[in-house]
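Sample intake sheet
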Amino acid sequence: MSRITKRYLLIGGVLVLIVVGLIVGAVRPFKNALGAQPAQSPTVEVVQVQQEDVPIYGDWIGTLDGLVNADVRAQVTGYLLKQGYQEGAFVRQGQLLFQIDPRPFQAALDQAQGQLAQAKATLANAQAVQRRTELDVERYTPLAKEQAASQQDLDNAVQNNLAALATVETAKAQIKTYEASVETAKINLEFTRLVAPIDGIAGQAQLQVGALVTPNSGVVTSVSTVDPIKAYFTVSEPQYLAWRKRFPTETSSEAAGKALHLHLILADGSTYPHEGTFYFADRQVNESTGAIRIAGLFPNPGSVLRPGGYAKVRAVISTQHDALLVPQRAVSELQGGYQVAVVDSNNKVNIRTVAVGDRIGTRWLIADGLNRGERVVAEGVQKVRTGALVNPMPFDAENKDK
């Protein structure tokens, strides 16, 4: 239904016709469309608070080192003739690394051997002389008793025999001296071969072929056993004491050390695929830091890990029973505190302050503020406020955490 009204107005000497139209029945439905329709509740994804036993991990910064590190040094003076290994390659015990010019040492050995041979000849001659003087004593002794020979002849024979015995002993001592010289010359000749003292990875050569080396030249190269490889890390004294309280005896500590599984988080953020085991704890606590040094052993096939590298060492230090867990995305940090949006049975939101513990994977451990089975908003937290009604949907953790 419509109604039309005509009116005439005189404006500036001109008569103007104004037509006013009103559509009856259209105003009330329009008003209803503007204000009477209720607001729609936001859709959020919720998850129930889980309760389970969870492992508590400890993380420490670790430094990698070889199981055995051997420095190769020169023991004699000479020029390096050749390098017998490739730097960074695996070498076997006894493998030639460097060759020092052996000629002076071979000459010294030959000279010592010649002197030894001469001393042996001198000994043989002295023993022959001593044998003759001994026969003289044996011959003159009965003759002197029968007065067929003078006592002076017997005394001279005895003195000659004693002198010959002294000469023999001197020759024997000289032989020992020359034998020692020969042994020393052999050792020095062997020292011209700088060999790998252990199986392992050989490092960079610190001196090149042609260089003059002496016993004071320092390290020529190093060899490290890297399979297994050690990881050093320090733990606080309270952590160490807590561990020892769990295993108070030495036997149980050793057993616990074997059962303590260590993990490495490498510098690129990846987790090393091989587990490590406890190796030893240092003999003392560092007085300045209040920490004690621990070593773990990790298998290292292929020698991927090298001494000097850094990695994070991770281990389970305890187990918390009946812990309450929620996804990390359900917890909001605000001014140093933590909050979660709890949805009650009437789908009404309550923003609640909670106390958090450790992070367990992609979840927070809640120390206080939540109860088992309560629903918390995991997706859409920014849409809600205290007292708001929401439309809760199940949280798809698998797709959201990928």
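Comment: Confidence is low (pLDDT under 50) at residues 22-36. The chain has six helices and 21 strands.
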